[in-house]
Amino acid sequence: MPxxxxxxxxxxxxxxxxxxxxxxxxxWAVTTESGLxxxxxxxxxxxxxxLHHLEWSVNTGAAVERGQAIGYVEASKATSELYAPLSGRIxxxxxxxxxxxxxxxxxxxxxxxxxxxxxxxxGLLSPEQYLAHVEASWPLAQRLLKGxxxxxxxx
Length: 155
Fold this sequence. Notes:
By secondary structure, this protein is α+β, with helices and mostly antiparallel strands. The protein is built from four helices and eleven strands, in the order βββββαβββββααβα. It has helices spanning about 40-50, 95-100, 105, 125-150; strands at about 5-10, 10-15, 20, 25-30, 35-40, 50-55, 65, 70-75, 80-85, 90-95, 115-120. A hairpin with a 2-residue loop joins β1 (about 5-10) and β2. The longest helix has 23 residues, at about 125-150. It is globular and about 40 Å long. It starts with a strand and ends in a 6-residue tail after the last helix.
């Protein structure tokens, strides 16, 4: 297996396995028999914080277009819509993560996968391209995180 890439988010390393592709929206993709299996990258999990709820607005068998809203996630630092990183058909949704979203926090690159889309993978990035993408977007992410830390809840 190729050596993983590492992006330092301050003092915290975000490990990026080199055996998969990545979406600019911070999902990883690995080829399986039923399509491209997707999950959150370590970068995404660090930005979101601990996941505690995941919900899909699509079902297995549904056709999706790249950029289409397909669900949402709630985590300790953020709540976010989830968008399809590629066009295709939903071939699997991981039932274990729906039951226990904390699997994403502890096993993000194996049992914490989200869903599988049978599609061509157009628009996905190599590990090196994704590393360059997170390096370029990190200054904005830091400013956003600092802005959230200074806001009062409910005020």
